[in-house]
Structure formats: C-alpha cells, structure tokens
C-alpha cells in the first residue's frame, strides 16, 4: 500500500518526461510522522538556535544533510535539512544576509519538517494523515513536509529517498538535542569548519549510529551546460561588428537570475531564469529574456552579441556580479574590445528588476 502523493516528474529535462521513482510506503510515512511528533515533543528550539548546525548522513546514499532547528523566536517551528555541501553553502549565504529575500526561495536545497496550523496544509498532506489515522489539534501542531530545490517552488515529498532521509534527520536531531540540552554549544562547528555529524554504520547485520567531527566535502563542481552559440561566433563576424558599432560612453549591466514568479500549472511550478541587460547610465532595459531553469543555461554572450548587432552599438564596459557571468561573455567582450568588470552591485539593473517584478 502506498500513500497518495503527487506524481513525480523528472526535473532538468525540457520535455519534462516522466519517470518512476520509488514512492514511500505507508510504513515509511508512519515512521516520518512518528519521528516528527517525537521531535516536536522535545521542543529543543528552547535551547538550540540556528547557529547550532549539525550533520546527519543519509543511511542509503551517504549524503550529509546539515540540520538547523528553528523555533527560538516562537514564530516558525521546524527542522531544516540542507542537502550536501552546496545546501550548507546556501544556508550560510542566507544567514550572512548575502541573499535578497526573493533569492532565498530559489536558492535553497533542503528538506523541511515544520509544524503548522491546520489551514496551512494541502489535501496531499491531510490525505496521508487520514490514511495513518493520526489526529492533531491546536496551533502549530500539524506536521508538514516539503522539499526545496533551486529554481523550483517548494513541493511535497514524492520519493522514498526524501522520506527516509528526513526521518533519519528528525530521529538523530532529537537524539543529539537531548544529549546536549545542558551544553548546546558543543554542537557548534569548530573554528576550522568541522561539524558534528551522525553517521550510520552496519556491522554483522546490525545498524548503529556514531558521532563524528567532519568537514564538508568539496566536490568537483560541474559547470552548468551552456548553449554554445557564442563559442561558434567566428572572429570575422566579431571583427566586422567591432568596426561597425558605435562605442557608447556608458556601461551595460548584465545579470541572469531566477525570477520569483512561479510558472507552470498541474506539475511542479518553477521559477524561470531571467536575463536582463540594462544601460547603466540611462537605466533603459536593452534586452530581457526568460528561460526554463533546467537543461542548458542560456548563452549570455550570444544574447549580448545579438543585442549589439541589433542596435549597432556597444558600451565601453560590461558590468556583472561574478566571474562566472563574465566568463560566458569573454569571447564577445574580447572580440568587441569591451572591458568586463566584476562589481558588487548593479544599481541600474536592480532598479529595472524591481520595476519588472512589481508589474506582476
């Protein structure tokens, strides 16, 4: 018997071809709700803060989830499990204030077990609760489980892997929190970046958990595939354009970001990628484009080249927030003799971005 959950679909594929992932059984759902009830009963947010971050290793995949307890302020009661080193980095960026509020929603990679009022739950949540024969009463008493994935709207748990991981995290969080009720700061990461991590071990067919101090593992970063129109741009084309365009005494600001405007119905909605190119002096939006967040990332260099050819003009400089964006622009910047500048802020583009979002 399986609990009824939204049908899973394959992310990162333009056609969104469906594929079967193993759904959780009703017994696995029962274990998750039991772990959540026990976690809430402990009320460990009375002595743990968001700074007490610890890890739990996935019993099947080995991935480490970095756990953060919410509830000290009495507003949100939850356990967030940030997935892997990239999830941890995202959490730290949010904690440092580096991300705008609208960026936080699309930057997280985590599983969340929260406790909500009844009217916050969807029919998918209450359907499982009814199948399990559970009853909850009162404010902030109803368990709710969600997955947060970069570029997508928060969604229900649809796979066994998610349910098993969150169950283990809740169980081990309860154990660690109980052990450190009188000395919670022992759960703080060390100055050299080691975290307390609960690790499952199997010996002689018997599974146990042990506590270790581990540093987050840096994986070789896979560059997002990028459409390669600009790399195919020949030097002759760039040379002709360089001679033909008018060099403007201004700079253009360029950024590619997730627009906090969910798109899609029926399946899991997503936040599209938005490309903006804005004149830094006049604030005029020179180019805007929307792209799906999966598959190949848009080739910003090609978009810039097309814009320069269309308006027969180019700036003296192009500003971007990071080296990654400038790297995709490099062939075109070099061919058109435009200086690329990494900056901490794009004031004209930010004003344009806010104006666009206010229109939705």
How would you describe this protein?
With 360 residues, the protein is of the alpha+beta class. The protein contains nine helices and twelve strands. The protein has helices at residues 26-42, 84-95, 101-107, 123-132, 160-179, 235-244, 300-311, 323-335, 347-358; strands spanning 54-57, 64-70, 78-83, 110-116, 142-148, 195-203, 206-214, 246-258, 273-279, 285-291, 313-320, 339-342. The strands form two sheets. Strands 5-4-3-2-1-6-7 form a seven-stranded mixed beta sheet. Strands 10-9-8-11-12 form a five-stranded mixed beta sheet, sandwiched between helices. Helix 1 (26-42) packs parallel to helix 5 (160-179) and helix 7 (300-311) crosses helix 8. It is elongated.
Task: Please tag this protein with its features.
7-stranded mixed sheet, alpha+beta, 31% helix, 5-stranded mixed sheet, elongated, 360 residues, 9 helices
Shape: elongated
Unreliable stretches, pLDDT < 50, 5 or more residues? 1-19
Tell me the distance between the termini: 43 Å
Number of helices: 9
Strand-residue proportion = 15-25%
Describe, in short, the structure shown:
The chain is of the alpha+beta class. Helices cover 31% and strands 24% of the residues. The chain has helices at residues 26-42, 84-95, 101-107, 123-132, 160-179, 235-244, 300-311, 323-335, 347-358, and strands at 54-57, 64-70, 78-83, 110-116, 142-148, 195-203, 206-214, 246-258, 273-279, 285-291, 313-320, 339-342.
């Amino acid at each position: 018997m399986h609990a009824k959950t939204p049908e899973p679909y394959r992310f990162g594929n333009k056609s969104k071809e469906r594929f079967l992932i193993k759904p959780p059984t009703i017994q696995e759902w029962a274990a998750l709700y039991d772990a959540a009830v026990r976690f809430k009963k402990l009320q460990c947010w009375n002595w743990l803060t968001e700074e007490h971050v610890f890890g739990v290793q996935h019993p099947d995949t080995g991935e480490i989830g970095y756990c953060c307890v919410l509830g000290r302020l009495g507003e949100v009661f939850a356990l967030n499990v940030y997935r892997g080193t990239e999830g941890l980095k995202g959490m730290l960026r949010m904690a440092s204030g580096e991300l705008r509020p609208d960026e936080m929603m699309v930057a997280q990679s985590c599983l969340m077990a929260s406790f909500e009022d009844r009217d916050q739950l969807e029919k998918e949540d209450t359907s499982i609760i009814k199948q399990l024969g559970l009853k909850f009463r009162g404010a902030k008493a109803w368990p709710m489980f969600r997955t947060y994935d970069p570029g997508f709207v928060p969604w229900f748990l649809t796979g066994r892997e998610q349910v098993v991981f969150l169950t283990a995290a809740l169980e081990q969080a309860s154990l660690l929190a109980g052990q450190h009720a009188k000395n919670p700061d022992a759960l703080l990461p060390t100055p050299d970046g080691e975290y307390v991590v609960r690790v499952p071990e199997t010996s002689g067919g018997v599974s146990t958990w042990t506590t270790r101090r581990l540093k987050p593992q840096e994986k070789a970063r896979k560059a997002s595939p990028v459409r390669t129109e600009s790399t195919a741009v020949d030097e002759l084309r760039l040379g002709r354009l360089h001679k033909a365009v008018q060099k403007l005494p201004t700079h253009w600001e360029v950024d590619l970001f997730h627009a906090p405007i969910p798109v899609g119905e029926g399946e899991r909605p997503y936040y599209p990628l938005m490309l903006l190119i804005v004149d830094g002096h006049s604030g005029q939006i020179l180019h805007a484009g929307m792209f799906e967040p999966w598959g190949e990332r848009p080739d910003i260099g090609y978009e810039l080249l097309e814009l320069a050819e269309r308006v027969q003009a180019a700036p003296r400089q192009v500003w971007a927030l990071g080296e990654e964006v400038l790297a995709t622009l490099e062939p075109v910047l070099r061919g058109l003799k435009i200086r690329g500048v990494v900056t901490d802020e794009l004031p004209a583009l930010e004003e344009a971005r806010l104006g666009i979002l206010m229109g939705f």
